[in-house]
Amino acid sequence: MSLGSLTARDRVGLQDFVLLEAYTSESAFLENLRKRFHENLIYTYIGTLLVSVNPYKELGIYTKKQMDIYMGVNLFELPPHIYALADNVYRTMLTESNNHFILISGESGAGKTEASKKILQFYAVSCPSTKLMDNVRDRLLLSNPVLEAFGNAKTLKNDNSSRFGKYMDIQFDHVGGAVGGHILSYLLEKSRVVHQNHGERNFHIFYQLVEGGEEDLLRWLGLQRNCQQYSYLVQGECAKVSSINDKTDWKTVRKALTVIEFSESNVESLFAIIASVLHLGNVKFIADSRGYATLNSSPEIHWLSKLLGIPTQVIQVGLTHRKIAARSEEVLSPFTIDHAVYARDALAKAIYGRTFTWLVNMLNESLANKDSSRKTVIGLLDIYGFEVFNVNSFEQFCINYCNEKLQQLFIQLTLKSEQEEYEMEGIEWEPVPYFNNKIICDLVEEKFKGIIAVLDEECLRPGEATDMTFLEKLEEKMAGHPHFITHKLADQKTRKTLERGDFRLLHYAGEVTYCVDHVLTIFHLQVMRQSKNAIVQLCFPTTEPDSKKRPETVATQFKSSLVGLTEILMSKEPWYVRCIKPNEGKQPGSFDDVLVRHQVKYLGLMEHLRVRRAGFAYRRRYQIFLQRYKPLCPDTWPNWKGTAAEGVQCLVKHLGFKPDEYKMGRTKIFIRHPRTLFATEDAFEVCKHELATRIQAKYKGYRVKGHYMRQREAATTIETCWRGLKARRERQKRAWAVKVIKKFIKGFMTRNQPVSVDNSEYLDYVRQNYLTRLKESLPKTVLDQNTWLTPPPIMKEASEMLRKLYTRYMVRKYIQGMTTERKAQLQIKGLTSSLFKGRKENYPHSVSRPFVDTRIKINVQTKVISFHAFPQYSVPVVKYDRNGFRPRFRQLIYTGTAAYLVEEAKIKQRVQFNQLKGVSVSNLSDNFFILHIQSEDIKQKGDLVLQCDHIFEALTKLCLVANKENCINVVQGSIKFDIQPGREGFVDFKSGQETMIYRAKNGHLMVV
Ligand SMILES: Nc1ncnc2c1ncn2[C@@H]1O[C@H](COP(=O)(O)OP(=O)(O)O)[C@@H](O)[C@H]1O
Ligand SMILES: [Mg+2]
Questions:
Q1: For helices 204-212 and 131-151, angle between their N-to-C axes, nearest 10 degrees
Q2: Which residue, of 301, 504, 522, 942, has the fewest CB within 10 Å?
């Protein structure tokens, strides 16, 4: 039961029949199976047994992904699947290091072979692999198509029905790698070689060879590409089937044979045999005059002889006569046609049957594991199920006998293990009523009394043995057995359903009527012993016990092989897959109640369920039970401190289980009714959600908290680092600052000493500092003489030089920015300065007044110009008479050669520059000047006493025009001048509050 999926149980029925409340009801069982089948859920458990219903369609549940899902997962944790079972077997084998087998049973067409293939494929994918193992794995996988080609055929029930029983061992090394394999085959249905019922075919390989064989091969084998030509292939009248592609299957088989390392010669011999069987089937007999059989098919004999390497003569005789030992001689006795045909078919069957055995041996050689270290194995038993036909021959008898044996084994193993479990757990064993089929097994196999014993006796006793004598013998021995009926032994009613030559067995799975025709077989070995075909030589060895000795009959051989199989299985742990066929028509989605009910019955599923449920539906180890349900009880959640058993006891008490509802074993708890478990499970389901939410919340909180803590830690770390860094920087800075300051102070203290290490930096600093400051505070104009930063002592010299440089620079800049007129003007002003600066008191007032070329109206000038040379300067003046010192307004005009005193354009006086002796001015702030004129001539007027508001301009111009720069005298006190030659006058100058000009009493002009 898949606990994890129990919630879904209402929708798709129960995943485990053990939980079926009405576990004794076949209808309830069927109902669950049907419900799931219609939901495409073909697998259901009964405990660890897997019930599989053939879906007859692809379900897409055998993918690699599915395999991965089921790998390493507990059987009950996922929905039932063949992979889950396979995986569980595998893991149990690995952990317990013991051997296991999986018994796959079911009716023909129920899906047994498919199931075994799925298991094999699962192992091929899930096992660890190495190159060597890959090799083994490929061979294991490829042995299947070969076996199927030779051992499978289309039947009415299944287009690919296995016509032999197969037990396959897969061997694993201690780490679980597949390292080898072994196949045992049982009871190939040889009769199929010579006879097929309507709608059935011979073994696939015949059709594959004829349809797919290469031209060359067919020519060499003497075959035609037409199945209709061969009487062994057409009896079922369906050589061609849409579901089978013989051509592609042929290719697969050929490839598989190569991989499995069949030599070319072996392959040739093998197909020679297959071909010879077909030729043999075409051999015809006609009656000669005495009614004995003679051959009528020379080409077939020719090919038989060629392919088997037996002389034609030998074949001819062998097919039409039998040898009878008469005293010391051997006598040939001819066959009737019937006998000849029977003998021919018997030969064909024998050849095919033995070749099949040889093939299996070859496969085994190829799969054999050469390494002798200890292996564990998983056996796969894919054995034919019960078969009931209209006519059931000896082969069906064997098949059904085999099923009886397996049923017996099943009963023993399940009951035994169940009983052992109860014993081990110390729980009272409550016997389950079930049908034990031992009585039927005994009927068949008991020594001296069983059917096989009787058959042996009949075959081997001297004298003519026929089918009827055999039947009589049986009737004699078995009379009164509840499971054996013949026509003679039956009552009135049943007798009608029986032929005279039939006997009927009441198998555990139902009644089967067998026909005793041809139960006794005849061998002829001697012909085949002469064969040159390598395989035939191996199959019919000359050392084989001769018919003279007591050979084992087929039935005995089969019986002993079954005993062998039983022994093999008994030594291993059993697992079961029960295959069920849902309908007879191979239809997907159709569920035939009657048919399924019948299979459920004879597969013993109800019995198995009853046994599993014997008393307790559910059992689980304490640990597992506690682990799952501990959240349901506060004492056990989240952890139980004591033993698991005590925990479960506590849990169960809390849940309120009634004492008769459960039992405590040694290691397991046993729960009687499924409903108890369901209630627990439902409670758990509810609780689970709460828990999940709580856990989720806790976990989320935990995650977020963790995240927050980490962030906080990170922030602190970053902060610490940053602070450290900052502190270190600060410290460095301070240390540096201390050093700098110290040095600064030292530098300051030693600043006046010669340059040394101590003060060089300080001095540099002082210099730089001074220069920077100086840069900011340079004088803005040339005239600004005061703003010059006081230099530190060491910079005195440099400062002086800089000051000069800068002044020159400013001057230069000033000059460059000057107009020519202004330059000229300034030059004149310069001249003025050199003449008067510091000498005449009112000079500073004149500096700011610009000089001009004339101060008189143009027209006055022009008049003068018209008479004389070009006037270069003119200015109004006041002329004081030499005698009376009366002031008169005149204009003073300079030309290139002379100065004129003009009144209203009339020249009053002309002074030639060369006659000009000098000019005198006072040192005071008056505007008087006296022109001293040279005069030898008496008539000449004396010196001129003039007053001019523009005295400095007029005098400077005079110097320039007259080119007499030294002519000006600055005088203190009085100026003496000539009134006339020989007669002198004086002008006195005095400082005073008010400007006054007057004739003083001494006759001098007084200027205050
Ligand atoms: N699990 C399955 N899924 C799909 N089809 C299946 C499955 N099992 C069987 N079949 C179909 O049923 C047919 C018969 O199955 P097979 O295994 O040969 O039967 P058995 O061996 O029991 O006689 C297969 O050829 C296949 O078409
Ligand atoms: Mg099969």
A1: 100
A2: 522
